[in-house]
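Illustration: Transcriptional regulator, BadM/Rrf2 family.
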Amino acid sequence: MFSKSCEYGLRAVLFIAKQSTVDTKVSLTTISESIDSPQAFTAKILQQLTKSGFVQSSKGPYGGFFIEKENLSTIKLSDIVSVLDGDSIYTGCGLGLHQCNEKEPCPLHFKFVKIREDLKNMLEKNTLSMVVKDMNSDIFHLKI
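Result:
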């Protein structure tokens, strides 16, 4: 449903958010290893998220990526998806057909509308703090 960059981006943001709750900044290497993502690909995703202001980074021996604690309760999953995948996930065809629309629907078009609406609602209602609170502590293979 999500692009690969969006999947990795969501994983990276949740990993960073979890570490940020305990005031830990994490390196690119730690993030990419922990979320099982190629480092160069992770770097490009984090660059987008940093440019968008959702993730911060600092350089130096105590540097790394982090999210301000006060932002954890305001950043929604939909914000991250929007930056990485745009809004096409809410409007695109369930079969990936370009010509699918209300006038020329694919066989799954009207069944997929409800799924897209539910997905949008779930992403808009869940903030990073809500998801991190419910996260199993070893969901990512922490390598600090």
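Reading the tokens back as a structure: The two ends are 31 Å apart (CA to CA).
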